[in-house]
Amino acid sequence: QVQLVESGGGLVQTGGSLRLSCAASGSISRFNVMGWYRQAPGKQRELVATVTSTGNTNYADSVKGRFTISGDYAKYTVYLQMNSLKPEDTAVYYCFKTGPYWGQGTQVTVSE
């Protein structure tokens, strides 16, 4: 079994920054793809960003230029640096890994 543990969420003002981290542990043999989804109240879960074991990244249009995803492949850890945060970024952010495996979610709240 694989466990994903997230950290780094919180409350920030518009224009501020946060850094999310997610560490995978358990029966892991490869990094594969790791990334982040988010779900705002009353909305469907949506893809935020992904990174592959070869360093390829993919971003939702709504976060391009503001968010940066990176991975520590040896530690099976993925990071999401979020800058220039907006109120519409408020959501529960979920880490995922190819499997699929999901983290428990971490709340990000951006105040006006």
Structural overview:
Helix content is 0%, strand content 56%. Strands 2, 4, 5, 6, 9, 10 and 11 form a seven-stranded mixed sheet that branches. A hairpin with a 6-residue loop joins strand 4 and strand 5.
State the main characteristics.
112 residues; mainly beta; seven-stranded mixed beta sheet; four-stranded antiparallel beta sheet; 0% helix; globular
Distance between the ends: 40 Å
Number of helices: 0
pLDDT averaged over residues: 96
Largest sheet properties: 7 strands, mixed
Shape: globular
Quick synopsis:
By secondary structure, the protein is mostly beta strands. Helices cover 0% and strands 56% of the residues.
Detail the topology: elements first, then pairings.
Elements: E1 2-7, E2 10-13, E3 18-26, E4 33-39, E5 46-52, E6 57-59, E7 67-72, E8 77-82, E9 91-97, E10 101-102, E11 106-111
